[in-house]
Every structure is written in C-alpha cells, then in structure tokens.
Amino acid sequence: EEDSLSPFIRLQEKKKQAQLMQKALEVKEEVFRERMKVITCRWRDLHAKEAQLKTYMEKSGRILKENDKMRIQALKKASKERERKIQKESELLRAKRELEALRNKHQKLSNKVQKYSIFNKYLEDVVKISQFEEIQEVIWRYKTLVRMHKDLLQAQLEHKEMSEQAKVLLDQYTAQKEAEILQYKNELVQLQLRFDQAQSDVLPWETCWADIQNTTAKKTLKLGTIKLAIFNLFQ
Asked: Mapped to the 3 state alphabet, what secondary structure does 168-197 carry?
C-alpha cells in the first residue's frame, strides 16, 4: 500500500506545487501588470515633463539675459548688503564696547554710591539739626557756595592779572618817562653849555658895540661941527 500510495502522494504534492506556482505566477503577472501600468503612467508623465522641460528651456532661453542682469543686480545688492552687514557688525561691536564701558562706569558709580552712603546719613542728620527741610536744599546751598567761591577766585585771579598788567604798564611808562627825563637833562646840559658859550661870546661883542657907539658919537659930533661950520660960511 505504501508503494501504491507514494506516486499518488507525489502527484498530489506536484499538483499543490503547480497550484502554488500558478498562484505565484498570477501574483507576479498582476504585479507586472500593475508595474507596467505605473511604467506607462511614468512614461506619459516623462513625455509631459519633457514637453514642459522643452517649454521651460525655451522660456529659460528668453529670460537668460534677464537672469544675468538680475544676477548682476543681485551681486551688487549682495555686495551692498555685505557692506551694510560689515558696517552693522562694526556698529554692533562699537555699541558692545560702549555698553561694556557703561557697565563698568555703572559698576564704579555703584561702588561709589555704596562707599559714600555714609554721607547720605550724615546729610540726613544735618537736615534734622539745621534750617533745611530736604537734603537737596543742602546740596543746592553747597553748590551755590562752591560757585560763589569759584567766582571769587576767578575775580581775584582777574584782579591779580589786571594788577600785574597795570604794574607792567606802570613800569613801561616809568621807564619811558625816565628816558625822556634823561634826554631832557642831556638837552638842558647842551643848552646850558651853549648859553655859557654865548655869554662868553657876548662880552667881546659888547665891548665892540661900545667902541662902535663911541666912534659913532664922535663921528656924529664931528659931522655936526662940520655942518655948523658950513652953515656959518654960508652966512
């Protein structure tokens, strides 16, 4: 029985294998058909895309020059943007440095405020025992006194400068007048010498003048005598 059943079993197994292979083949055929459908759709899409690409290439050919122009403009714009970016970064760096400086200054001021906080307590005590009602009034009074002190020092400095300028002018005037006095003294000495020389020269001339007067008197007397004699002779 085993020998008679073995071919039948094998046949049944072959049938099962054939059925399985048929089903697998049908599945593969269905998959192939579906794939062919997909390939066909893709082929149509490819043709459509090829047509679109051709149209796009034609359009691209027309706008290529415009794209070059736009590209140049874009490069210029990018260059300007890069310059503005560099400028902004520089400004940002400067602002960061200023901010850091302000923070340091704020920290120093905070330290000073903390250091000088005892003076606020002192001013509060001053307000309590003085005629002032607020600390700000004390500060205003102090600033007024400081300003008056500065004005006084400035006035003293200006007065000192004016005094020094007046002293310099006085020294210059004194030196000028002393030089003029010395010149006048020298001229007076010269005039005195000339006067003495003139007086020494007057005496001989006075003597000569007296002689001339005596001679003239004698000549006049002689002339009168001659006139009288001529008149007598004429009579």
From this structure: HHHHHHHHHHHHHHHHHHHHHHHHHHHHHH
